[in-house]
Amino acid sequence: MKLRYLVSEIKDELDLRDARREKVFLLARGIRRSSTKAVREMHKANFEAAESAIEQAEKKLSELEPGDYSFTLLQEAIQEYAEAVLTMSFLKKREPPSHKELGIPGEWYLLGLADTVGELRRHILDLIRLNRYSEVNHYLDLMDEITHEILTLDYPSAVLNIRRKQDISRNILERTFSDVVRAEKEIEVIRKLEELRY
């Protein structure tokens, strides 16, 4: 019967796809690992090491084939890559690249963009700790702009599953505003106390 041949033919295709999935899994793990390392190095101000880690992620990314993007296991890795590249752009005050320039799906780019809000909060807290208050407002305004743009994305989760990240971004922004205001008040109190001493 012809049915055995038809099923066998499909099994051959599935075997090839399964083998490719294994390859994509390894690439995704490499992309994710390098992207995570890049963000970690940025927060230590090791920008050269961060750039190197991003380049490693891009090398793995270049090994992907168009059909690989149908594997959902790739999504989180690409999100983290987008987050790393965009965070680097923001911290170095460069124009951020588009999803087309990065060669990644727009939906995953947006999810990565949403995650940069948390990285910018961490950077702002570092600036406060280092008494570099003159730089804080730039990053606070950037957080506000990103959050505003993220909140304009009103799509069902089947199209763009971003609702949870929108809530998290809004919450992070509000907490950061409060932290900055509190820090500014503390600086003002310290300044007035010093004036009274002299």
Please give a structural write-up.
The protein has 198 residues and is mostly helical. It has 2 domains: 1-104, Methane Monooxygenase Hydroxylase, Chain G, domain 1 (Up-down Bundle); 113-198. Helices cover 77% and strands 0% of the residues. It is built from 7 helices and no strands. It has helices at 2-43, 47-61, 75-91, 99-102, 106-129, 136-151, 163-197. The chain starts with a helix and ends with a helix.
Q: What characterizes the major β-sheet?
A: none
Q: Roughly what percent helix?
A: over 70%
CATH architecture of the largest domain: Up-down Bundle
Q: Tell me, what's the shape?
A: elongated
Strand element count: 0
Low-confidence stretches: none
Order of helices and strands: HHHHHHH
Determine Rg (CA atoms, Å).
22 Å
What fraction of residues sit in β-strands? under 5%
**What is the CATH third-level topology name of the largest domain?**
Methane Monooxygenase Hydroxylase, Chain G, domain 1
- What would CATH call the homologous superfamily of the largest domain? Translin, domain 1
